[in-house]
Amino acid sequence: MNTRIVAVMLCAVALAGAAGSAGAKGCLKGAAVGGVAGHYAGHHAVVGAIGGCVVGRHLANKKAAEQAAAAHAAQPAAAK
């Protein structure tokens, strides 16, 4: 295996593990995945990382909104 590929994969795993504590949820994890995918799809790692960050952030916001709606719906009627 090419050492560059191994280095990129290790960085992607490290970033994915650190993404849970990031302020911009979804961005780091999406950027890591998008960067790796972009690298293999024609050496466009930066474009892939940017796209992955945008998509990851969108999905994190969507998940947070769904969880907030579910928590609001689960409250007893008297507490509303």
UniProtKB/TrEMBL annotation:
Residues 1-24 form the signal peptide. Keywords: Signal. It comes from the Bacteria. This is Glycine zipper 2TM domain protein. It comes from Collimonas pratensis.
